[in-house]
Write a structure and sequence with these properties.
about 220 residues; nine-stranded mixed β-sheet; 9 strands; about 30% helix
């Protein structure tokens, strides 16, 4: 009875490290105001890892990019994220109004880890454009990527949301790409043939309303 009325329960959500830091705190606290007795367990990993966590019932929901198709998982689109190319203020690109993708040939690039939506999207773009990127490191650690970029060791593609503070502080600068503005689709994912627990269904409805613009956070 308590579960049905959302007086109690445990909500297990998987998401990326970026959203665990930049998005989920606001979503979770706002949801908690309406459902104060629901305990939320937040799991972190790559988009691919969190999608697969649904298959073994570790999580009920996942807020992720779609890295692989899976007929057992429903991916409901909820928003698009801008991917921005960042560089040190000392990098030659920072003095240019815009650059082309061809200018990235041979440039040292720090990439997100395999299994991330950003990695998949940028890899596909490079492949389509016939560019073989000079990848010097891959990691899920945004702070590590920003540190390397700040030291002018390379450039990186990241979601704007994940580096808003660093861009605002001037630690790194955005580089404008000519006729190109990559967007990453973000989804709320759950198992297709599985009845969600009441608290997971309530959070699904809440997140869908918030992130598709029907409510304000």
């Amino acid at each position: 009875s308590g579960l049905q009325q959302l007086k109690t329960g445990c909500l297990r959500i998987g998401t990326t490290k970026t959203y665990a830091r930049c998005l989920m705190p606001t979503l979770m606290m706002n949801f908690h105001e309406s459902h104060p007795n629901v305990m939320i367990e937040l799991d972190e990993g790559s988009s691919l890892e969190m999608s697969k966590s649904l298959l073994n019932y570790r999580n009920s929901l996942a807020l992720v990019a779609k890295v692989e198709e899976d007929s057992d998982i429903v991916f409901d689109p909820i928003m698009k994220e801008e991917i921005v190319l960042i560089a040190s203020s000392e990098h030659p690109f920072s003095q240019k109004k815009e650059i082309s993708l061809a200018d990235l040939n041979a440039q040292p690039i720090i990439m997100k880890e395999l299994g991330s939506g950003t990695n998949k999207l940028i890899d596909e773009i490079f492949h389509d454009q016939g560019i073989v990127p000079n990848v010097i490191a891959k990691t899920s650690n945004i702070g590590f990527i920003v540190q390397l970029v700040r030291q002018n060791r390379g450039i990186a593609f990241l979601t704007r949301r994940s580096v808003e503070k660093e861009l605002s502080d001037g630690d790194v600068v955005p580089i404008h790409l000519k006729d190109f503005s990559p967007l990453l689709d973000i989804y709320i994912a759950y198992l297709r043939n599985f009845e969600l627990p009441p608290c997971a269904k309530a959070f699904l409805d809440f997140v869908t309303a918030c992130l598709t613009g029907r409510e304000q956070l």
